[in-house]
Amino acid sequence: SHRVPSLVSLEETKLYTGVEYDLSRENYRETIARVTRKLLRYILDNSEDDTKSLFLIIKIISDVLQFQGSHKHEFDSRWKSFNLVKKSMENRLQGKKQHIRALLIDRVMLQHELRTLTMEGCEYKTSHQEMIRDLLCLSTSSYGQVRSKAQQAFFTALGTYNFCCRDIIPLVLEFLRPDRQDVTQKQFKGALYCLLGNHSGVCLANLHDWDCIVQTWPAIVSSGLSKAMSLEKPSIVRLFDDLAEKIHRQYETIGLDFAVPEKCIEIAIMLQKSEHPSSSFTGLRSEEIQLGIQRQKEKNTEALRNYENLVNMLLDCVEQRNLPWKFEHISIGFLSLLLRDDRILPVRAIKFFVQCLNHDAIVVRKVAISAVAGVLKQLKRTHKKVPICPYEISGNPKPSNIQAGDRPDNQWLHYDSQSLPKTKEAWEACCFVEKTHWGYYTWPRTMTVYAPAEHQPKLGRRRDELTEAEQIIYDHFSDPKFVEQLIKFLSLEDRKGKDKFNPRRFCLFKGLFRNFDDAFLPILQPHLEQLVADSHESTQRCLAEIMAGLIRGSKHWTFEKVEKLWKLLCPLLRTALSNITVETYNDWGTCIATSCESRDPRKLHWLFELLLESPLNGEGGSFVDACRLYVLQGGLAQQEWRVPELLHRLLKYLEPKLTQVYKNVRERIGSVLTYIFMIDVSLPNTAATKSPRIHEFTARILENLKPLMEADEEIQNHVMEENGVGEQDERTQGIKLLKTILKWLMASAGRSFSTAVTEQLQLLPLFFKIAPVENDNSYDELKRDAKMCLSLMSQGLLYPQQVPLVLQVLKQTARSNSWHARYTILTYLQTMVFYNLFIFLNNEEAVNDIRWLVIKLLEDEQLEASKMAATTLSGLLQCNFLTMDGPMQTHFEQLCKMRLPKKRKRDLGAAVDTIPSGDLVKRHAGVLGLSACILSSPYDVPTWMPQLLMDLSAHLNDPQPIEMTVKKTLSNFRRTHHDNWQEHKQQFTDDQLLVLTDLLVSPCYYA
């Protein structure tokens, strides 16, 4: 009965190869196994504590079962070593061929070993069966070490011999029977380990076979009824946890309905009749084909019977009153795995899961919520679709080539407040397209939309029109007490501070309102009104989940029902948004974003009009204003290109309010602006967007920021964090506006699809003027944001036509009175050039401008700016953006020859002149230029370097800061060239080496 039925002859045929080693022709493996078995029985009966002998027996059984000349783990190790040797000795010119002879011999040997290992397990004989049973006996021994070693051999054998698992499972499950009194705790534990398996081997509890899991899963659950076992022991509890977790992680749905398509049979017959390759097979008669089909149907019927039996057996286990709670949870988890796409769950299980929605244990309720949502998906009725022609609807011909963006043929999908479906006739005449991406690039080959309501499944069905499964759900959710208890449970807090909008709960309510339309709305309405009045985090989250489910579930409702729904929802939403808190604003954002995802915006016009009702009205303070914007942003962002009118309206509303004082509102406005301009991208074959344009908006902003851009004095953040009363001057308004614009540019850098446009680059002089030099967190918000914004903008892609504009801005700023600005343009220049290296290299004029700018700033009178210019020059030389040519070297050498002013004696009481003279600055610029050239080659010594080092050494005794620059350069040169100095010193003459040695080697004080 434990044999696998087969249509192939499995009779044993004995084959002998090689030399005749024994005239008896005896099978030594069987003899060793037989003798070992007798010894094992004797030891287990008389001296089970002789663990060393048992270890040896396990080793013998393992070798007899599996050793055919090599072990699998040793073979894997040799295969890995072979691949490493092969890779290290390969000749890439020869490709994968022409390996040395030793490698080929190793490969042939490995191939032979692989063949012998692969052949193992293709036969499952009686001797194999007896040895595996012996290993099972040892795997449930009284001694932990014996069990552990036996289980390793047992798991290897299970993975080697085909179908042995079916034979061994009943024997393992015998140890788990709750009515057995003769099973010890050690045997019980060993059996659980046998079911669990090892890390990478076979798991008996989770085989992809109905005949197996229909035995193992109920046995695992019913083992909890055992009175003889101490199920509370930590090791046993951990084993059951591991078993359940492994089954949940590895289980894959097992098929119920296997079928061979007619096309496959036709191809098989063609292959059989083909002459290339020719076959002696005569083909199947129609009777044989019908017999095969009949067997296939019987197998499918048996699989379905097993599926239903497994569900009923697990339910029988759960309904046992004395089953411990842990095993009840395990059983419910197993039941949840049996939900399928192709078969509705049995009615008894559906009723169980619906009742579990109000179970006392939160773990069970979570599983039940997911399961009932899945059942509702199974019960979903198919909605009819009809083909349409979008070009006929738009009244425009099909374009000759594909063009993305807003075109005449897709404008009928846009949200238009003048033609919203606000009546039943307009609603039914409107052609709703739910998918947001349809029509933006092009239309599907066959465009389908949902058919009119009269061709769809009936809404508002009576109870007697429902199926048995639907009646169970209908009865429970029509019960006010059941719904009241469910809402109470859903309003409870689970994990303080970690709870979020739960998509499973959302799917539950979406399924309810999709399958039963508004049948449950009268019962839920008082609960919704009660929830919205409670500002607690968990109740608000529950309300958000239900409302999102309502909005999404009403997709196929009639106009009358949808209009009635929004009359209920709009007041609730207004109240909820006015009561929003720090803990719940994320949940409401998710609620609205989920509601609007893949939905035609014209269907949701009530929602969008509500959200656009003055979001910054000040009611509730700045936090509530920011939250309203966040929620609105979540809804509009889902609609992308289909709501240009709403985006224009929102931008028009926000523009006068950009001078917000509150930081949280500014940040949110910056984020909202990013999404408003998200679709404004300039790509090939893309039509101009109807949504707001960045360049138009930025041009208006530049006009408002003129007072700041034209001012020479330093801009300080003197705007207090409160709304001032009365008129404020243009400068104060400009600073507040600038703060919001900085937030927008920072948010855009990481989210938008395009980099800064030309108008935005015109803001750079202002940012250079504000950004601080040092990294200090004590700086105010304006300075920190300006520094961050410059950093992000410098990393953006520049279009070739923007390069002259940016360089003009940098040149203009280089003449600024503020050394902070002159310093900042150098840090900006470094990043900008490296991120756009090839664009600049393709423009010779731009390279010359940058060269001039950097060399010019070497002569800056501010030491910090000139040092940064030297660092920038060194980097540009190192990446070969600039080259160290004769004119550059001559220029620096001439600057180095500038005469220094003579030292004048000063009176003791006279003030010290701290401003360096122009000649000293130029001389220092020459030294900085030479230093930059030297430090640009840290790993080699070009031909021009020895002379530059000699030139530099002549300035070692110059006044500060020249002396410090020379010392630092020589120190860095010594550090970077130390490792390969023996090679590098070949580039120097003896005289140069002598001078260099004096400079680089520290004097010995004890000479």
Description:
The protein is an all-alpha fold and 1007 residues long. Among the domains are: 71 residues, no CATH class; 156 residues; 175 residues, no CATH class; 109 residues, no CATH class. Helices cover 59% and strands 1% of the residues. The chain has 45 helices and two strands. A two-stranded antiparallel ribbon has the order 1-2. Helix 2 runs parallel beside helix 6, helix 13 packs parallel to helix 15 and helix 21 packs parallel to helix 23. 32% of the residues are buried. About 2% of the residues have low confidence. Belongs to the BLM10 family. Its main location: cytoplasm.
Annotation field: number of helices = 45
Helicity, as a percent range: 55-70%
Radius of gyration computed on alpha carbons: 40 Å
Distance from N terminus to C terminus (CA atoms, Å) equals 99 Å
Q: What percent strand?
A: under 5%
**What structural class do you assign from the helix and strand content?**
mainly alpha
Order of strands side by side in the largest beta sheet? 1-2
- Low-pLDDT runs of 5+ residues are 719-727, 908-915
Number of strands: 2
Average the pLDDT over all residues and give the rounded result: 87
Q: Please describe the biggest sheet, giving its number of strands, its sense, and whether it closes into a barrel.
A: 2 strands, antiparallel
Approximate shape:
globular
